[in-house]
Structure formats: C-alpha cells, structure tokens
Amino acid sequence: MEVEQTLILVKPDGVQRGLIGEIISRYERKGFNIIGLKMMQLTRTKAEELYEIHKGQSFYDKLIEFMTGKPIIAIAVEGKNAIKLTRLINGETDPLESKPGSIRGDYSTDITYNLVHASDCAKNAKSELAILFSSEELY
Ligand code: CMP
Asked: Radius of gyration of the chain from Cα atoms?
C-alpha cells in the first residue's frame, strides 16, 4: 500500500451550507492525516489552472464562476491510497450515481454544486497541491 498525498477542496457550497466540519471529519475518521488546511477565495488564475482539463466544456464557465465566487477550504491529506479512497468518500460526480454514505450521496443532488473536489491521479494531486499550497504550508 502506498502512502499518498492529495488535494481536497470543500467547495463554496459546502462552506455556505455549514458542512465544513462534517466533510473534514469523514477524511479524519477514515484515518487520513491532514497536513495542510486553509480557507481562501480562489483567484480566477488558480481556478483556471485547477480546471484546465475542463476548458471548452459546456459547464466550464459556470464552474469557474462558482469556484471563485465565495471562499473554499483547501485541505492537503496524506495516507495509504489517499487518492482513490478520498474519491470514494466523496462519491461520484453524477448525482444519480453518488451513493448514500458518500459526501455527495448524502448531501448533494447537483452535478456542479457538489460540495467537494479530490485529485484524480498522482500526477494531478502533485500539480494541484502545488497550485494551492507552498511547501512551507505542508506539515
Ligand atoms: P470536480 O470533481 O471538482 O471536477 C470538475 C467539476 O466540474 C466537477 O467536480 C463538477 O463540479 C463540475 N462538472 C463536472 N461535470 C459536469 C457536468 N457535466 N455539468 C456540470 N458541471 C460538471
């Protein structure tokens, strides 16, 4: 089993709905270590870097507006198989597929306003962590 680091975001809807504690507790309960944590408002530049692969998609502009409109919580998480397991905790992007017991399955019905983000592979985890955290901010 590989110890991995990954980036989690509590999106603006999660912050506004008062779900920060509920969401963070799920990664902690699973056994992951939180090695970086901050509240911030994403700049357009950072949001565009983060979602570069979605550029050109029909939902892209809405996604960037949403992610930059209100504060988010950025969390760096470390643990065994953290990349795959945090995505299981989050649930599927499609609300019709996200199962009860997952964060999205329990708290969201919307494909854009879906509360959380987690990096999808090791390469993206590394680059996304670097967009949100400097090395001094990780413990
Ligand atoms: P996330 O896991 O952060 O990755 C990309 C985000 O784009 C996704 O969560 C959703 O917020 C949004 N997204 C992905 N697919 C769609 C879609 N088909 N329609 C609207 N928003 C989407």
From this structure: 14
**Candidate CATH numbers 3.75.10.10, 3.30.70.141, 1.10.10.10, 3.40.50.720; the one for domain 3-137:** 3.30.70.141
Per-residue tokens: 13: 């809807």
Query: Catalytic residue numbers?
Result: 117
How confident is the model over 87-111, as a mean pLDDT?
98
**How many CB atoms neighbour CB 86 within 10 A?**
26
How do the domains of the chain map onto residue ranges? Answer: 3-137
For ligand 1, residues with CB inside 6 Å are: 54, 59, 63, 93, 111-112, 114, 117
Amino acid present at 82: A
Q: Is the pLDDT of residue 1 over 70?
A: no
